[in-house]
Amino acid sequence: MYSVASRAFHWMMAGLIGLAFALVWLREDLPKGDLRTGMLSWHMDAGLLVLALVLPRVIARLLGGTPALAHMPPWQRILARAGEGGLYLMMLLQPLMGWLAVNLSGRPVSLLGFGLPALSGPDPALRSLVAELHEVGGWAILVLVGLHVAAALYHHVLCRDDVLASMLWQGLRRPDA
Ligand code: HEM
Ligand code: HEM
User: Does any ligand 2 atom lie closer than 6 A to the CB of residue 168?
Assistant: First the structure.
């Protein structure tokens, strides 16, 4: 079972990431105006909160431990941990790319109204590269999360083990697993 703190971080951050995607996708179809601008700044807030929560989450994981996954074949254990590593990497890189892209276009970044330091001065050429990396990063997250959710469902429905329960709640655990 993951600790309460690890589970809280997991679902809070999954929600923030979902929100970041929803906001940036929904605003595409809106006409220019306050709502469209506001949705981009909420996108940045959600993404920056993800970045801010990575370190406390890693600490919670180190202190609270991880389930042993002892019942799984080694290839599944390696894939599960590699997938988690990829997700952590993207939770760091994706918001940093977004932050950098905004600074490279000469604009400041703030989190919930508090100004953050600039990672760079303006540089339009580098900005388009970093913005492209941010777009590719979005796709990479979707692929990783897709595989991650498919693996969670595979374990719950087909293997009938406690992998999904370990991220939800004790009551879902199967007594015979
Ligand atoms: C979990 C974190 C984040 C995720 C998953 C994410 C994801 C995305 C996605 C999918 C797009 C659309 C890409 C496209 O199709 O062009 C996007 C655009 C963008 N993101 Fe993020 N992002 C995150 C964090 C941030 C942060 C922290 C910032 C800035 C502080 C930021 C700034 C932007 C900007 C300026 C755009 C371009 C919007 C536009 O031109 O319409 N993002 N992001
Ligand atoms: C509906 C969506 C999701 C489901 C059903 C889900 C399910 C799970 C389950 C069952 C585990 C425990 C199994 C294991 O240890 O590998 C887990 C762990 C994990 N998940 Fe998810 N997940 C979801 C979304 C996400 C998202 C969006 C991210 C981040 C981008 C994420 C990142 C992680 C990480 C890093 C772990 C390892 C435990 C930790 O350090 O917190 N998950 N997830």
Answer: no
Indicate the DSSP class of residue 117: -
For 115-136, write each residue's pLDDT tens digit.
Answer: 999 999 999 999 999 999 999 9
For residue 168, the ligand closest to its alpha carbon is 2
Q: Tell me how far apart the alpha carbons of residues 97 and 135 are, in angstroms, rounded to a whole number.
A: 9
The pTM of the full predicted model, rounded to 2 decimals, is: 0.95
Q: Would you say 28 and 72 are in contact if contact means Cβ atoms under 8 Å apart?
A: no
Residue 177: inside a domain: no
Ligand 2 in contact with 148 (CB < 6 A)? yes
Is the Cβ atom of 97 under 6 angstroms away from ligand 1? no
Q: What is the pLDDT of residues 86-117, one digit of tens each?
A: 999 999 999 999 999 999 999 999 999 999 99
**Count of structural domains, the chain:** 1
**CATH code (residue 146):** 1.20.950.20
